[in-house]
Design a protein that fits this description.
Blueprint lengths: L13 H18 L1 E5 H18 L4 H11 L2 H11 L11 E8 L6 E7 L9 H41 L1
Helix pairs in contact: 1-2, 3-4
Length: about 170
């Protein structure tokens, strides 16, 4: 019996359960929403709401506490600098759970856990910078390819005009 036991064990030992929930909350912060089973979504929602509530204070002590939980500075900075300021008017209820149907293999209920308000750019500061660099390099590559193609067409047009004149 689980009388007065609040934590769902999720069929894992303590360390494995903590790592699982840490990873789910990290993914929620990085992407803005995750899809997982119902039990995992409910536990992740409890934990994420507590952490976002702490991050709203934006002090060095809360940053250290969050870093102790996540172990990664970029996730903590994203949480404190991007996600928490969006929820200044809210006291609680920073995430929402919606049904996402059933999993195909074992018919388990899937839920989508998402932030109620998402910032303009979703992702950690490092990931957003990398995406911007990739877009810029892709644009440069496209410009370079089009620049190479245009002179080639012009030279081929010259060759065909010379053949026609002979």
């Amino acid at each position: 019996m689980r009388h007065r036991r609040k934590v769902k064990r999720l069929n894992r030992d303590t360390n494995n359960r903590k790592m699982l929930l840490r990873g789910l909350v990290r993914s929620l912060i990085e992407t803005g929403e995750i899809t997982t089973t119902e039990a995992k979504a409910k536990e992740t929602k409890r934990l994420a709401d507590k952490l976002i509530g702490k991050a709203r204070m934006n002090s060095m002590a809360t940053r250290r506490t969050l870093h102790n939980f996540f172990g990664r500075r970029d996730v903590v900075n994203t949480l404190v600098d991007r996600i928490a300021p969006v929820f200044t008017e809210r006291v609680s209820g920073f995430t929402s759970i919606t049904s996402a149907g059933a999993r195909r293999g074992d018919n388990t209920k899937l839920m989508t856990l998402s932030l109620v308000k998402k910032p303009e750019t979703v992702g950690t500061l490092k990931n957003v910078a990398k995406k911007a660099e990739k877009k810029a390099s892709a644009k440069k590559a496209i410009v370079a390819k089009t620049a190479k193609k245009t002179p080639a067409k012009a030279t081929s047009a010259k060759k065909t005009s010379k053949k026609e004149s002979k």
